Amino acid sequence: MASFPPRVNEKEIGKLLLNLVDHTEVVRDLTFAPDGSLILVSASRDKTLRVWDLKDDGNMMKVLRGHQNWVYSCAFSPDSSMLCSVGASKAVFLWDMDKYAMIRKLEGHHHDVVACDFSPDGALLATASYDTRVYLWDPHTGDILMEFGHLFPPPTPIFAGGANDRWVRSVSFSHDGLHVASLADDKMVRFWRIDEDYPVQVAPLSNGLCCAFSTDGSVLAAGTHDGSVYFWATPRQVPSLQHLCRMSIRRVMPTQEVQELPIPSKVLEFLSYRI
């Protein structure tokens, strides 16, 4: 069986290698497992996620079912063990990618959820919704740890679907693990710290649709409905030694294991991102 990607010479660069055909509706998002395994997950309006093995000629390994409506976006945890998928009807699902089984559904949003991203250590999950909110979750417990509101006062659940001039379109974690960026329909891009419920910096942006940090976190790129891409220098902060140690620990320890450590309660709260 041929391996993927095959060896190609310069004349073959840009040539179509595979065409993965199985979804029955629009494919909204794609994400590769960060472990280099060439496992690809696709999210579609056909209410499914499909797992493909590109080392096996694009063989479809699994169909993940659970969404009752469109799937908008998906993201792997940094260790590739967990997948988050978000979609219409307030849906936020977490999947075990070793067993291809649903771990839990996260409850809290009041409208369609359109974007998600894990923190670099995998201890936090950010989700963005048309309910004007970005939530930071503990993916290991399902707890909401922080809310970033884009409308004040925040709309009550019965009105959360109506504030369509404040719908949040995108969210992205910086690689320092301290900052999050969000785009909303109020023509603003916001930069947040994970421990503060107000933006540390705001910039104008019309028709924002998606955003992503550069690898070193120094630049945020944002794409718009009108075909433009804008770039910003991001808030810079030297992470504390405590935060760097926390990220190192949380890369290898889920919340449940952290909570069993024989250490003072304040240290446990810090390691669990609860202070």
From TrEMBL:
Keywords, in A-Z order: Repeat, Ubl conjugation pathway, WD repeat
WD repeat extents: 20-62, 64-105, 106-147, 168-202, 212-232
A Pfam cross-reference name: SOCS_box
GO biological process assignments: intracellular signal transduction; protein polyubiquitination
Pathway: Protein modification; protein ubiquitination
Residues covered by the SOCS box domain: 231-275
Gene Ontology CC: cytoplasm
Domain of life of the organism encoding this protein: Eukaryota
UniProt keyword Glycosyltransferase present: no
Function: Probable substrate-recognition component of a SCF-like ECS (Elongin-Cullin-SOCS-box protein) E3 ubiquitin ligase complex which mediates the ubiquitination and subsequent proteasomal degradation of target proteins. Recognizes type II iodothyronine deiodinase/DIO2. Confers constitutive instability to HIPK2 through proteasomal degradation.
Name of the protein described by the UniProt record: WD repeat and SOCS box-containing protein 1
Protein's organism: Ailuropoda melanoleuca
